Amino acid sequence: MAEQSSDAPSLGLRELSRVRLDELLQEMLDRVGDVMASRERLRALLDAVVGIGTDLDLRSTLQRIVEAACALAGARYGALGVISADRTELANFIIHGIDPATHAKIGDLPHGRGVLGLLITDPRPVRLPDIRKHPNSYGFPPHHPPMHSFLGVPVRTRDQIFGNLYLAEKQGAPEFSEEDEEIVVALAAAAGVAIDNARLYALAQRRERWLAATAEITSVLLGTVRLTEALRLIARRAREVSGAALVLVMLYDEENGRYSIDVADGDDPATAALVGQLIPVDKAAAAAFGQEKYRLVDNLRTITEWPGPVPDAPALAAPLAASDNLQGVLIVTRAPDRPADDEDAVLLSTFAGQAALALERARAQDERRQLAVLEDRERIARDLHDVVIQRLFATGMHLQGAAPHAARPEAVKRINEAVDDLDATIRDIRRSIFELRAPVGPSLRGELHETVEAAATTLGFRPILDTVGPVDSAVPDDIVPELMAVLREALSNIARHAQATTARVTVQVTADKLNLRVEDDGIGADPAAARGGVVNMRERAGDLLGDFTMTPRPGGGTIVTWQVPLAG
User: CDD domains, alphabetically (predicted)?
Assistant: First the structure.
């Protein structure tokens, strides 16, 4: 028998055929490995797509997109740059892979220049083996980690570019592969859907909050509306819904061409100083603004000379207008990293329109209340004039008629004193009638009382104030500031020079003249030595075609008389 070979059976294959079979088997194994790897990457992509859509919060969604892109492509660093509304730069930048300490050292985030700007001007994928060698590369700022390989992919939402995915530093390979680009492009497509859903959800939430605030303002309209309370509620709700750092409610004074800041609701306590300040405005510009729905302001601080602290930030301005009548403006600031869009502006405009109705109703209710008060005052004044004064006058006449028949001189004296008291009472009642028929709210009579009260601190005593005639209704507006300036100067002179213990101020209005008389019981003054304030009082009278005198008072002291005509 022939000996059998110890080698394994060759199955009839020659040596060359066995080598070829091994190569084919290895190629098959490699392809199976590629298929398995592709299957794993596809599964990872599906998991990432599901993961980025699990939450509808926009910021969380963007962060998960960046993390998923880094995991799928094997990138060490990743970022998602959100493009600004004007499509020229990056408005926001969400990063992954850089720790907070390094992030703080780097400083400002990129604005979309250099290589990062390529995807803004030409939204197509960009894959580079070394970003530093690209002709558009600006280099990296200090403390920035070194980066070489780069992959950039645009993220679309519907027909617009929302932002760009940037990946750097491929791990385990010198550069990103074509497969990496394909899988990131697929992720970007799914990310666009997730971002669109998150934005729609955020918009629905904002609409719900604005509608709730508008409904609250509407409910206020159903009850008694106080103007100040309504303005504060409008500002507070607008700030809560919009997340603004500052909300201003300014009412428009058409007659004087200016805005008055009635409410300032903000984070900074110093904004309270803005309340009550006046902002001049061109009447034509104000009328044009009243016809608009809203206006976007790039920088609130630059639109006018503000009399207090105003943030350097963009803002939305919506007119408070009802029935084509501009009542004011509602201004809401926005954070620089959260630019306002048209949807926010429309929601604010709708809220402002409802707020304008609240103001209109508040003013109507105030007018009705004032009308009711005036009617009540007119009734009381009529009763005092037609009943009380006539009875007092008749009583005085009876007493005067009885005086000649009195037997004793003492009785005659008492009757005459009683008649004098009745005359004084009638004068007081007439003054009260004038006060009752004066307009409700701020008045010249009230301003006179406040000035006299304020002078008591420096004088050491309270001067007596008499007002005679229609002080509130007959004195023209251009004479009021002159009158108050003269009164303050006269009281100041008494406090500084007169050494008086009493003073009396009389303001009398007749059919054609206003007469101010200020007298004191002090040491007197020499009219020839008058200077400073006394000269100013004389000049104020001359400017109004009136007269000024300063004479000694019988018994000691000084009498200052300032008299001007009421017409022209």
Answer: HATPase_UhpB-NarQ-NarX-like
* pTM of the predicted model as reported, rounded to 2 decimal places: 0.51
Angle between helices 480-493 and 533-543 (to 10 degrees): 160
Q: Is 475 helix (H, G, I), strand (E, B) or coil?
A: coil
Relative to beta strand 464-468, strand 503-509 is parallel
Cα separation of 455 and 536, whole Å?
A: 19
Q: Does domain 444-565 have CATH number 3.30.56.10?
A: no
Helix axes 178-221, 15-52, angle to 10 degrees: 10
* Domain boundaries of the chain, sorted by first residue: 25-199, 206-365, 369-436, 444-565
CA distance 328 to 352: 10
Rounded distance, CA 471 to CA 509, Å? 6
Could you tell me the CA-to-CA distances from 409 to 93, 99, 403, 560 in Å, in that order? 104, 108, 9, 39
The tens digit of pLDDT for each residue in 373-386 reads 667 666 766 666 66
CATH number for region 25-199:
3.30.450.40
203-206: Cβ within 8 A, 24+ apart:
203/343, 206/241, 206/343, 206/344, 206/347
Instruction: Look at residue 162 in the predicted model and tell me its pLDDT.
Output: 84
Query: For the packed helices 480-493 and 444-459, what is the interaxial angle rounded to 10 degrees?
Result: 20
Task: Tell the residue number behind the tokens 């385990």, with chain if given.
Answer: 172
CA angle 206, 209, 210 (to 5 degrees): 85
